[in-house]
């Protein structure tokens, strides 16, 4: 394992913990897209079907369990524990516009036409776009709390660090996973505009990140 992979995993874990703590401490999931969280739970579920059949390392197994548990805990808090605070009126992104093309691509572009491999490919493609309902929600409301933007920052940082991981592995091992790389780059691009707003507004001490209104 290289430093980029480790730092990426830590950033991913920090992002999810930030979100969970935000919801638990405030007893509110206002500003959080439940649809994005369901998509992320679906990502982990379809990716880690080999949890009990393939052993890679203790680290790998523990991280799989942690990400699965935390993703479903987040969904539970949003749709069950604090459902009265869920902003369904603004969480209106049509997820079928993501799922249909992702399912189609998973059948067309994969390394082996088997159920597990197709579902793994599905998880890679879906992760690239799963954040879109959250970004759409922020665009629709025009602002986001600073804690929510911190969550998005670490989530985007995780993807950016994984690009470093792929570059490192290609140069040191000659390994290149084209499906994961292309999907990861696409996902990182989605965060670029957010990164700019994060550094120029949130880190300057503003309580919320307010999007510029169109003229």
From TrEMBL:
It holds the Pfam family ER_lumen_recept. The keyword Transport applies. Its main location: membrane. One of its GO terms (molecular function) is ER retention sequence binding. Keywords: Cytoplasmic vesicle, Endoplasmic reticulum, ER-Golgi transport, Membrane, Protein transport, Receptor, Transmembrane, Transmembrane helix, Transport. The keyword Transmembrane helix applies. The chain crosses the membrane at residues 62-80, 118-138, 150-168, 180-199. GO terms for cellular component: COPI-coated vesicle membrane; endoplasmic reticulum membrane; Golgi membrane. It is found in: Cytoplasmic vesicle, COPI-coated vesicle membrane; Endoplasmic reticulum membrane; Golgi apparatus membrane. It is a multi-pass membrane protein. GO terms for biological process: protein retention in ER lumen; protein transport; vesicle-mediated transport. Belongs to the ERD2 family. This is ER lumen protein-retaining receptor. It comes from Nothobranchius furzeri (Turquoise killifish). The lineage of its organism: Eukaryota, Metazoa, Chordata, Craniata, Vertebrata.
